[in-house]
């Protein structure tokens, strides 16, 4: 498939080894109170969580460092090499910053070039593109062990975020950005984003959606901490493979 300018084609999603599935953080009953919901999650993680009200007036719970992690995202393509397809590299930069590493996009692009962890040949819009194996190698090369996973569900993703792990997901940019194209363009993952939080209904525990950092549609900062509803996330991520790069340890807090 052809890609949007600046978006790499993600081709292979080999499943990482040694990843232990965390137990799903479910609710015992649909009638559980918000206070009990907070207490249950508190037993499993120190990930920040707060109550809020959704646009349709429901009480919701947001789990994750959404506001803090906004600052770790920026528009891709800020490197001396002129590489534009650096969504995976900027996502790695984002995760490394979450772990306290002082890096820039330029640092990560140079490291990827030197270690053959990104696409360096024309066309210009795809230079800097990465596979999940590349992303895992870059994180591990900077001291952050990670693994690639595929075939995940929204519940799997929520469990990883709620466990405090750093998460990169491989998604279809056309779905994410509401591009109206022929159906064939929606079949593959062609973009990498960082997931920074999950929103659940406070009474039922149902997943409303996820918060993301998107370097490819930055829109004057609106690509940071953007909320994507569960229906769209299913189509843009689960339906194209449910592939993610997940750190083995929680982000230090």
Can you put this structure into words, describing what you see?
The structure is a single chain. This protein is of the alpha+beta class and 253 residues long. Strands 1, 2, 3, 4, 5, 6, 7 and 8 form an eight-stranded antiparallel β-sheet that branches. It is 27% helix and 21% strand. It has one domain (34-250): Cathepsin B, Chain A (Alpha-Beta Complex).
SSE blueprint and pairings:
Layout: H1 34-44, E1 49-53, E2 59-63, H2 66-70, H3 87-98, H4 105-114, H5 132-141, E3 146-149, H6 154-162, E4 165-171, H7 173-176, E5 191-201, E6 207-213, E7 224-229, H8 230-236, E8 244-250
Helix pairs in contact: 3-4, 3-5
Main attributes of the structure:
single chain; 253 residues; alpha+beta; Cathepsin B, Chain A; 8-stranded antiparallel β-sheet; 8 helices; 8 strands; 27% helix; disordered N terminus
Short description:
The protein has 253 residues and is α+β, with helices and mostly antiparallel strands. The chain contains eight helices and eight strands, in the order H-E-E-H-H-H-H-E-H-E-H-E-E-E-H-E.
Gyration radius from CA atoms, angstroms? 17 Å
Estimate the mean pLDDT confidence.
87
Q: Span between N and C termini?
A: 40 Å
The number of helical segments is: 8
What is the makeup of the main sheet? 8 strands, antiparallel
- Note the beta-strand portion: 15-25%
The CATH topology annotation reads as Cathepsin B, Chain A
Helix content range of the residues, please?
Answer: 25-40%
The unreliable regions are 1-31, 41-45
As an assembly, this protein is: single chain
Would you report the number of β strands?
8
Number of separate domains: 1
What characteristic shape results from the CA principal axes?
globular
Q: Kindly name the structural category.
A: alpha+beta
- The CATH architecture can be given as Alpha-Beta Complex
CATH class: Alpha Beta
**Element-by-element helix/strand order:** HEEHHHHEHEHEEEHE
| CATH level 4 superfamily | Cysteine proteinases
């Amino acid at each position: 498939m052809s890609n949007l300018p600046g978006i790499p084609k993600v081709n292979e999603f080999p499943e990482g080894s040694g990843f232990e599935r965390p137990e799903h953080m479910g609710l015992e009953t649909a009638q559980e109170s918000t206070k009990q919901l907070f207490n249950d999650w508190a037993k499993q993680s120190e990930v920040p969580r707060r109550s809020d009200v959704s646009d349709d007036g429901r009480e919701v719970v947001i789990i994750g460092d959404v506001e803090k992690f906004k600052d770790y995202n920026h528009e891709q393509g800020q490197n001396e090499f002129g590489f534009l397809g650096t969504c995976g590299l900027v996502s790695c930069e984002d995760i490394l910053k979450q772990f306290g590493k002082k890096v820039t996009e330029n640092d990560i692009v140079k490291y990827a070039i030197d270690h053959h962890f990104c696409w360096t040949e024309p066309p210009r819009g795809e230079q800097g593109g990465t596979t999940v194996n590349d992303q895992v190698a870059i994180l591990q090369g900077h001291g952050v062990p990670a693994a690639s996973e595929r075939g995940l569900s929204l519940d799997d993703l929520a469990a990883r975020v709620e466990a405090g792990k750093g998460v990169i997901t491989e998604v279809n940019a056309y779905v994410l950005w509401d591009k109206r194209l022929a159906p064939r363009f929606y079949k593959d993952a062609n973009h990498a984003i960082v997931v920074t939080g999950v929103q659940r209904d406070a009474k039922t525990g149902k997943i409303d959606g996820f918060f993301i950092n998107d370097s490819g549609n930055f829109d004057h900062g609106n690509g940071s901490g953007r909320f994507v509803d569960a229906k769209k996330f299913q189509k843009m991520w689960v339906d194209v493979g449910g592939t993610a790069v997940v750190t083995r340890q929680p982000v230090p807090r």
